[in-house]
Amino acid sequence: MAIILQVQDACKSYGSQALLDHAEVAFKSNEKVGIIGRNGAGKSTLCRILLENEELDRGEIIRHPSLRIGYLQQHDPFEPGESALDFLMRDTGEPDWKCGEVAAEFEIKGDYLEGPVKELSGGWQTRVKLAALLLQDPNLLVLDEPTNFLDLRTQILLEHFLRHFKGGALIVSHDRGFLKATCTHTLEVARGQLTMFTGHVEKFLEAKQVQREHDERVNEATQAKMKQLERFINKNRANANTAAQARNKAKQLDRLELIELEQSESNVRIRVPNVEQRKGVALRCEGVTIGYPDHMVAENVCFEIDHGTRTAVVGDNGQGKTTLLRTLVGSLPTIEGEPKWGYNCELGVYAQHVYTSLPQDWTVKQYLESEAALGVTTQQLLEVAGSFLFRGPLIEKPVKVLSGGERARLCMAGLLLTGCNVLILDEPGNHLDVETLEALADALQNYNGTVIFVSHDRHFVKRVCTQVIEVQDGRVAYYPGDYDSYLYRVEKEIDDHEAERAGGSAAASNDPAPKSGKAKKKRGSKDPRKQLNKIEKKIATLDDERQAIQKKFVTMTDPTEAQKTHEHLESLKAEIATLEEEWLELNEEMSDEWG
Fold it and tell me: What is the reported pLDDT for 72?
């Protein structure tokens, strides 16, 4: 593959912070590259430089003559009263028939195409922007946090678009699941350097950890040898009979070198409120109707949430997830009925735009001190502040000069310093980097209280949630399966719809559509329950094997053996994933037949 974009000897600083320090990287055509790094490391700055919206202090960006960059705009590019079709024609210069044809690939039809685009949800507006990108015929896409505020269906649609896009892509995202599903390479921006890795983000992080552990073991052995040589030299260099040996040992010592280890960035550890573990019902809704005076969102809402559970509220954008949360916390009155909280439930709320109400004249530290529960020490407060990137002098930074992302992180830090035993979180990860979001997931897993949250980050939801409530088509109810089965259902609906749209020519054929091998096997099974049990046993066996190899893997020192073992691990994971998918399909078929 040809190199279409190259960064050479790039330097870029803001004040004393060097975001790029003689950094170099090359991007090849057709590569899908996930760009990761801590908040403030320079990911968005790199994108702006590649888009020629910002200049390097030093260095060069070399562009292939055939390079055509397409950028997914984050701001609102739409004019008042403009339809999606009007925007596509204005933005791309293409005729209406061509714009309508490409828009249909993203299911933009009817009122969605002809009606005011500003009245569409954020997810549908993103679909319109994607259609505009495709019409511009780029061969390299630059996407900066494309999944922020996108619902699950639009995220999956964007994944499908990227997987089938024939050009390359540079994608900045904190969503590991999205990067893993779309990217073939990973670029880390850290300490002014750009490090390219062949493989998705999970493989990169695993390989990075394995390499670091290997280097640490080698350094330990080298340091032990150094001390041994130093003792010999100190003991024998003054003795005429052994001075020559001491000089030889000194030469050996000079030849020994330690592997230079990358200094670990401070580990992110988040402290959650230390609350009493309780049992019983925390929240009960019976016959509740939610919505607004001129618009009912859902009626006859009935569910219970027990203390200690972590409930993910799922559903498409515009279906009412935020409306439900606002109703539960009392900021939006019900149309009928009332949510009933258990005795002594203390609610801590993180809303998407809560940071707009922060006291402007306070400092970061003053705000956190005002939110902290009794008994929280100054050291604990500083640790939580540091985990949300308010370290050193930044703890005294005035609220009025904080960016939107900084204010959102400050609100989350303040919430986690309270003594609340119920946390209600609306999109808590939108302004957090990968490491901080992972730390938040760890913290919520260890939290003794109750969590009700909305998030479109699949990796985060899968780690945190213990049960699922779906808001869809005017109803709010428990989803009967776990989050994995919900994901599978949504992906299958999208796949089936795309296959139906793409299969017009196949439908004209007299031959029935071919069935997969798995489906044939299932239909031929006389006892589906036996087949289900067989798959479960196979998954359990393979998972035991995976865990045993994983334990052995982390102690390996031979790089060749480690690479082979890593490949075997990936093969096992893929086989387990395939079996889990088959189990879900079979379980769903049994539910349809017998339910």
Answer: 80
Q: For residues 140 and 70, what is the distance between their CA atoms, to the nearest angstrom?
A: 6
Q: How far apart are CA 62 and CA 315, in angstroms?
A: 44
Distances from the Cα of 295 to the Cα of 119, 225, 265, 316, angstroms: 16, 75, 49, 17
CA-to-CA distance for 229 and 345, rounded, in angstroms?
A: 65
Cα separation, 187 vs 263, in Å, equals 18
- Long-range CB pairs of 144-147, under 8 A, 24+ apart, other chains included: 144/43, 144/44, 144/47, 144/72, 144/74, 144/172, 145/74, 145/172, 145/173, 145/174, 146/72, 146/171, 146/173, 147/173, 147/175, 147/178, 147/456, 147/457
The H or E element that residue 473 is part of is none
Residue count of the chain, please give it: 595
Cβ-based neighbours of 172, under 8 Å, separated by 6 or more: 35, 43, 44, 47, 143, 144, 145
Strand partners, 141: 70, 169
Task: Locate 525 and state its tokens.
Answer: 């099974």
Q: Rounded to 5 degrees, what are φ and ψ at 39?
A: -55, 130
Task: Please tell me what DSSP assigns to residue 65.
Answer: T
Here the tokens at position 352 are 């998407």
Under 8 Å CB-to-CB from 555, ≥6 apart: which residues?
Answer: none
Distance CA 147, CA 164 (A): 18
- What residue ranges of the chain have pLDDT lower than 70? 1, 74, 149, 262-268, 352-356, 404, 501-530, 532-533, 551, 553-560, 562-563, 584, 587-595
Q: Mapping DSSP to helix (H, G, I), strand (E, B) and coil, where does residue 591 land?
A: helix
Residue matched to tokens 């900084």: 406
Q: Please enumerate in sequence order all residues whose Cβ is within 8 A of that of 212, keeping only pairs 6 or more positions apart, or say none.
A: 261, 262
Whether this model's pTM surpasses 0.70 = no
Asked whether 52 and 27 are in contact (CB, 8 A), the reply is no
CB atoms within 10 A of CB 231: 11
Residue 556's pLDDT is: 65
* Rounded Cα gap, residues 305 and 453, in angstroms: 12
Can you give the pLDDT at residue 338?
A: 94
For the CA atoms of 157, 162, 164, 166, the dihedral, rounded to the nearest 10 degrees, stands at: 150
Residue 453 bridge partners (DSSP): 312, 425
CB 305 within 8 A of CB 321: no
Q: Looking at residue 398, what DSSP letter applies? A: B
Asked if 490 and 156 touch (Cβ cutoff 8 Å), the reply is yes
- DSSP alpha helix (H) spans, 3-151: 43-50, 84-92, 96-105, 110-114, 122-135
Cα separation, 365 vs 383, in Å, equals 12
Residues 6+ apart with CB under 8 A from 132: 87, 88, 91, 92
> Is 270 in contact with 440 (CB distance < 8 Å)?
yes
For 384-398, the pLDDT digits (tens) are 888 888 888 889 999
Phi, then psi, of 197 in degrees rounded to 5:
-135, 135
